[in-house]
Amino acid sequence: MAPIYNDISVKVTEAFEAKDPSGLNAEEKGYYDRSMAYINQEDPTGYCSYGTFIGPDSGMQLAAKMSKEQLYQMDGYYGPNTDTMNDKWGNITSKQKEIYTRIIMGNDLNTEWDSWITFFEQQGGKDITEEVNAWKAEQ
Length: 139
Description:
- By secondary structure, the chain is mainly alpha-helical.
- Helices cover about 65% and strands about 0% of the residues.
- The protein is built from seven helices and no strands.
- It is elongated.
- The chain starts with 6 loop residues before the first helix and ends with a helix.
């Protein structure tokens, strides 16, 4: 499986830990400098670089961990929309966003998830699954 991150986060984190950005290219140095400005309380907007690149809880470091430990799986379907997708996908994705938003806003996860599954199946979800599986079998 290809990594889902790049080496920039590793280089920037290593430079941060060593307190030596001399080995960084211009792009990496920019992330390093913005992160340091945030850490030194000089510029709060540097949090974006800090939260993305530096340390074990940064987004890129978490992505690296997920990739190395194979905790992430890319979507295996990369084909065109199926016939049922063409007919139903708009309704499905609209309802999905609605239900996910209600979950984020604090509605009961189990109730909302059950609602989502019921809706998905009513809108042709089983047909879509069968069509995708048939496509995958042909690959």
